[in-house]
Amino acid sequence: MEYETIIRKQRGWIPINFREIWAYRDLLYFLAWRDIKVKYKQTGLGIAWAILQPLFTMVVFSILFGTLAKVPSDGIPYPIFVYAGLLPWNYFSSTMGSASNSLVASSNLISKVYFPRLIIPASSALAVLLDFLIASVILGGMMIYYNFTPSLTGIILLPALVGLIFIIAVGSGLWLSALNVEYRDFQYVIPFLIQIWLFATPVIYPATMVPEQYRIFLALNPMGGIIEAFRAALLGGTVIRWEQLCISSAVAFLLFFSGLFYFRSVEKSFADVI
Q1: Is residue 98 situated within a structural domain?
Q2: pTM (2 decimals)?
Q3: Torsion angle defined by CA atoms of residues 108, 111, 112 and 115, in that order, rounded to the nearest 10 degrees
């Protein structure tokens, strides 16, 4: 008796094989460590750039927006106000940028051997997490200098907020990395998108500057509600706007799962078109 095997392309939702991803956990670690080493290879200051970049940005923003433009900061000294916004923003923008270009950067690996493609953008996000942790030391020192003590609610909420930033960045990275494989124009769109997104997010200004009737748009921007909650959790000054945070969290999960769905639906063609 002869048997015939028919291979058909899967349509609709393609479930994630978590067991397979777990089996490749060593590759996830290796790629994340590779990204860290490549980033700081042959650099004079090494990993100190993780501190200098947000620190210098904070100084420039404090002069331009805090001193010259007199942007309000909800009664919080402007340097720590803007740094508390830049810290999560830099983690998000760096993660999204590296995840978006990760597939094209790993084209030789993708075209030669099989492994779960989700590992590549995930490893990029994990590598950037080290920069976030190092830059957090400066924020801790500023909190001591300005005499800010986070509340118990803020301490408990902080890991969840970092997790939400990770979800937004990875979700955006999944969308853009998959699109970047098919349409290389997206490598030029990504820096512009990050720049516009920055000014649409209350990083250098408080949400209270936006008229009440328009603040729903800040909530629909997932980073808007989360950065406001991040700042309030650490510094106080303003209460955590739970309604705004819930809306931003819902949009964050929508972005992540839609990006995951799209990525899984097109990943089988990566090796052919990359």
Answers
A1: yes
A2: 0.86
A3: 100
Q: How many domains does the chain have?
A: 1
Q: Is the pLDDT of residue 7 over 50?
A: no
Give the CA-trace dihedral at 32, 33, 36, 41, to 10 degrees: -140
Task: Name the helix (H) or strand (E) containing 172.
Answer: helix 152-182
CA dihedral 191, 194, 195, 198 (to 10 degrees): -170
Which structural domain, as residue segments, surrounds residue 83? 18-273
Using CB atoms within 10 Å of the CB of residue 61, give its burial: 0 to 12 exposed, 13 to 18 middle, 19+ buried. Answer: buried
Query: 231 lies in a domain?
Result: yes
Residue type present at position 187: Q
Residue 1 inside a domain? The answer is: no
Q: What digits encode the pLDDT tens for the residues 21-43?
A: 788 888 888 888 888 777 777 66
Least confident of 11-25, 30-44, 138-152, 159-173: 11-25
Query: Is 210 a member of any domain?
Result: yes
| Of the candidates 219, 160, 204, 218, the residue with the CA atom closest to the CA atom of residue 61 | 204
How far is residue 48 CA from its own chain's centroid?
A: 20
